[in-house]
Design a protein that fits this description.
The chain is α+β, with helices and mostly antiparallel strands. The protein has three domains: 69 residues, Arc Repressor Mutant, subunit A (Orthogonal Bundle), CATH 1.10.10; 85 residues, YebC, transcriptional regulation domain (Alpha-Beta Plaits); 63 residues, YebC, transcriptional regulation domain (Alpha-Beta Plaits, 2-Layer Sandwich), CATH 3.30.70.980. It has eight helices and ten strands. The strands form three sheets. The protein has a four-stranded antiparallel sheet with strand order 3-1-2-9. A four-stranded antiparallel sheet has the order 5-6-4-7, covered by helices on one side. Strand 5 and strand 6 form a beta hairpin. Helix 6 packs across helix 7. It is globular, with a radius of gyration of 18 Å. The relative contact order is 0.17.
């Protein structure tokens, strides 16, 4: 990780996410609905639904909204039937990009995603062209200065898969995808509150971009994230300010 500040990049990503909170409720409602449809409406036996509900509560979504979304997914209420689609491609300097969507109109979604890639200097690829470069996992990020030994001991005891110490002193706890909520809760009980965390597609290698390339890549990511049918965008790009 030499050559760039992991912590600065993490804060930059969080700030951009916070700035787009207007769309978060819509995306969370979609995810809750689909999770309930696939695995049932009981979060105690449906880890995907539990994760979606936890994220909704963290975003201060009213519990009534959460329950209605879950009921629509499990069939108790009528609702839109969303289709899960993943698109893959390449950004600036060949950086890998994964775009996860939930849509009720596949034709519209693929056209929108393809247009964003093309307009902002990327290339939409075929299924599986970059997914092998990512690992599906949960992660929790802790600011520089956290007690490394104590956090590592608590994380491994909580069931984390790995603990990574970055060059800038920040630390990341890596979990299995649906162990994320359990590990997060255990660490908070032990006195460790993360700055941010999520279940993600984590790149196995990073592409560091600076200057004009960084600006162009950010425009591509913003264009993809602004699409109504897009739930998540993952990339191997690290954008230096």
């Amino acid at each position: 990780m030499a050559g760039h500040s992991k912590w600065a990049n993490i804060k930059h990503k969080k700030e951009r996410t916070d700035a787009k909170r207007g769309k978060i409720f819509t995306r969370l409602i979609k995810e809750i609905t689909v999770a309930a449809r696939i695995g049932g409406g009981d979060p105690d036996i449906n880890p995907r639904l539990r994760l979606a509900i936890d994220k909704a509560l963290d975003a201060n979504m009213p519990k009534d909204n959460i329950q209605r979304a879950s009921d629509r997914g499990s069939g108790s209420l009528e609702g839109v039937d969303y289709l899960e689609i993943r698109y893959e491609g390449y950004g600036i300097a060949g950086a890998a990009v994964i775009v996860d969507c939930l849509t009720d109109n596949k034709t519209r979604t693929v056209a929108d995603v393809r247009h964003a890639f093309s307009k902002y200097g990327g290339n939409m690829g075929t299924d599986g062209c970059v997914a092998f470069q990512f690992t599906h996992c949960g992660y929790l990020v802790f600011a520089p200065g956290v007690n490394e030994d104590a956090l590592m001991e608590a994380a491994l005891e909580a069931g984390a898969d790995d603990v990574v110490t970055n060059d800038d002193g920040s630390m990341e706890v890596i979990t299995a995808p649906y162990e994320f909520s359990n590990v997060k809760a255990a660490l908070e009980s032990a006195g460790f509150k993360s700055e941010m965390g999520d279940v993600t597609m984590r790149p196995q290698n990073e592409t560091v971009l600076t200057g004009e390339d960084a600006q162009r890549m950010q425009k591509l990511l913003d264009a993809l994230e602004d699409l109504d049918d897009v739930q998540e965008v993952y990339t191997s790009a690290v954008i230096e300010e």
